[in-house]
Structure formats: C-alpha cells, structure tokens
Write a structure and sequence with these properties.
alpha/beta; homodimer; about 190 residues; two-stranded antiparallel sheet; Rossmann fold
C-alpha cells in the first residue's frame, strides 16, 4: 500500500546482503501511528473470516499484532524465542532458521493458548525466506488451528517465502513488496 | 488500580519461587483491551511532562509501550536483548541480570534513537528486583536523556526494585503492587 511504500522510500536504508533497515519506524524505534495504519489495513482485508486470535513471533511482530488486534478486539498470542523459567511445560515447539540472526532457534507457544477451535491471522513485520512464518504455521498445524490469512508489513519479493506460501494456498497480504534493491540505495517495489 | 488487581485475582496464578504467572493476559497471550487501559492510565498519570518517547525492553514490554504511545502520539524505542546481524554498530549497551531467565544478558539500543534532547517514560510489564529497569535507566544515562517517569503494570512489592527506585527519586507508578502471595494461591495487594 502507498503509505508503507512511501515510508520505506523515505526512511528505509539498503545495506549489503540485501538487508533493508527499517529500524527507525518498524522494528527498533516504532512509529505507532504508522503501525496503527498497518493494523487497520489488516483488519479491512481480513475481517469477516471469524478470526479470533492474532498470532506472531516475538519481538518485532508484537507491535503490529497488538495494533491489529485492537481493531479485531481479539487476543494476541506471540510465539517466544528464548527459553525462560516461566513458560509452561506444555508447549508447541518448532525449529526456525533465522536469516536475521544467522542461526537456528526454537519458537514455543503454550498449548493452552491455541487449539482446534481457533481461527487465526498470522502477522509479522517482514516476510523473506519465510522461516519464521513456517514456524508459526507449524505451531498452528500442531494445534489444529485454522490459518485464515497472513498479514505482512514488508515482503522481500526477491526471496521465495511469499511465493511459496501463496502457491500453497495461503492468503498472504503484504503492504509493500520489494522487487529489488540497488547498491545505490534505490528501492523498487512490485505490485502488492 | 482496581482493573489490574481484579484481572490478577481472576487470571493470575501463583507458582513456587514467588512467581506470578499472568501469561493469559499480559505476557504470552495479550488482552489488548486491557493493555489499552494500561496505556490510558499511564497517559493520565504522565501527560504534560514533555515526554517525547516511550522506552521499554523487548519483548513483554513492547505491547504496553505501544498502547501507551498511542495516547502520547510519540515513538516507542525498545532495548533489544539478542545480538542480531541487523543492529547498528553504534549502540548503547548495559548488562542485566534477569530473575526470569536466571542469567545475565545485555540490552542494546541504537544511539541514533536516544539523546540528550529526549524526555522519556520507561514502561514494563513487571517490576521486581528492578534489573531490567536499571538497564534502561543506565542506557538513558549514557544517552543524557531525561527520565520523566516509570510506568509498571505489576510490581512485586516484596522485592526491592520499586522501593529503591522511589528512594532515588524516580516517579514509579504501578497499576498493582503485590504485597505477598500464599502457597494456597491467594494474592494480596498493597496500596499503589
């Protein structure tokens, strides 16, 4: 959508290795008014599907998930990355390889928060190779929950995640799809 | 405040080791309507102090920070716990011992997002021994930023963090202060 593409052009920075830094508004410093627009856009797209939970992975998906959930008036459940002393023994787990972190990690979600009666919207700030989203989908599969849609702020269209998920029949709605980025710092979008 | 105490009594669970589990509404599954009330309460308390940023630590502070920031119409900046390939070389760092994780970790914040012209509200879901909050305060000190106040959803009054911060002159506003918890599961509050 125009508002996300414009913000990326204004404040996004291209870094070596096809990295798009959006840390001034999306995933370190957060522009909450912008994220509210994201939540509204996801609501407009996915309302009426019986969604009763918004799912994401910590940490940069949480803000988007909360602002989306405000419109739906449903809870957020976020998959955790770190082991803590404070998580239920009874959890769904899935192994994820992170492009950002350069290593594998496990995502976990307490079983009591997701089950076969749930219809969920999965959201995240980025979709690239799609491993984090696969982890969430795997957790939903273990839970028997229905995935009604996937909402993404920025999709890296030159990586396979979006294409694979759509080919499998998931309704993936991305507010901006980056087609390619130049070393000069220019960013080119494709139609979302 | 009444609404937070009532929710803790309804859904909070006492666990051995003085753990209060609030994972069904505050830090794993999130009741966004409740968190919106938290944000409003913090805004009512801290408005008019020139706050231009809301600071927290990932991950369970992010939701509260975003819903608070909506009322203030200012950005959120969250300190990160994990090293990623994607963080600026130019960062503030502080070492934190976590009661929850049982180990030390480093919190980091990119320097470009905090400086001497900033007046900040620090928020988090829990205040216990206060180490995470000390890490944030340390970052603010390195940045030269002014801490206008501290907003906490649940304070464990039987641990020293709140008392020490107030003794040092910080304006700590906690929506619920747990006085003590019984093995039976009963939870007792003190006046906030």
């Amino acid at each position: 959508m125009e508002f996300m593409e414009q913000r990326i052009l204004r404040d996004g920075q291209v870094r070596p290795g096809n990295i798009l830094k959006v840390d001034s508004f999306l995933n370190h410093q957060l522009d909450v008014d912008l994220l509210d627009q994201v939540g509204k856009a996801f609501y407009d797209r996915f309302q009426g599907r019986g969604i009763n939970k918004i799912l994401t992975v910590e940490a940069s998906g949480i803000a988007i998930a909360c602002l989306t959930a405000r419109y739906f008036h449903v809870p957020v459940v976020f998959a955790k990355k770190a082991r803590s002393k404070n998580i239920d023994g009874d959890t769904y787990t899935s192994l994820v390889h992170s492009f950002t972190y350069g290593r594998d990690y496990t995502v976990t979600m307490a079983k009591k928060f997701l089950g076969p009666n749930d219809t969920v919207l999965l959201v995240d700030d980025f979709l690239a190779v799609g491993k984090a989203m696969r982890g969430l989908i795997d957790i939903c599969s273990q839970a028997g929950a229905n995935v009604a849609g996937i909402g993404i702020a920025i999709e890296k269209g030159f990586q396979e995640g979006g294409k694979e998920l759509r080919n499998q029949g998931y309704d993936v709605f991305s507010l901006a799809i980056v087609d390619h980025m130049e070393d000069s710092g220019e960013i080119f979008f494709r139609e979302a």
